[in-house]
Design a protein that fits this description.
Elements lengths: L5 E3 L4 E4 L11 E7 L6 E12 L14 E5 L15 E5 L8 E7 L7 E10 L10
Parallel strand pairs: 1-3
Antiparallel strand pairs: 2-8, 3-7, 4-6, 4-8, 5-7
Length: about 130
């Protein structure tokens, strides 16, 4: 289990909100850095066991308050809102590459948030790789 400011190399690590399993009502940024455990890892799969952030604003559906942001791999759209039981794949490239940073940014009015995200490293030759479009 890892929370804000942690660097992770271990496969199967969970990224959780501060004070987990309690909900979080803070403002700021919480991020972890994912490093490959082996050079033959090409993807990270993020499973949102729990992911409750403030949803998008209703007119343009923009994540103006809370945001889940991935940086350092192939571009991934910013998401927010309720994403329990969803997942995403992040292309990490082949060989030793830059780290992947996953961040949860929280702001705006009081809102009880929580997240528990499982990180799985997928080797390049694995049949479990996701198709990236």
């Amino acid at each position: 289990v890892a929370t804000c400011g942690t660097t992770v190399r271990e496969n199967g690590t969970y990224f959780v909100n501060p004070g987990y399993p309690n909900q979080h009502d803070g403002t700021g940024s919480c991020q972890i850095t994912l490093l490959k455990s082996q050079p033959d890892v090409c993807q990270f799969r993020l499973d949102f066991d729990q992911m409750v952030l403030m949803g998008p604003e209703p007119i343009n559906n923009m994540c103006n308050n809370d945001q889940f942001i991935v940086s350092g791999g192939s571009p991934v759209p910013t998401i927010c809102g309720m994403n329990n039981a969803n997942h995403m794949y992040i292309d990490a490239g082949e060989g030793i590459t830059s780290p992947i940073i996953i961040s949860v940014v929280t702001s705006g009015p009081s809102f009880m948030r929580n997240w528990k995200i499982k990180t799985t490293q997928i080797p390049c030759a694995s049949t479990n790789k996701g198709k990236l479009t």
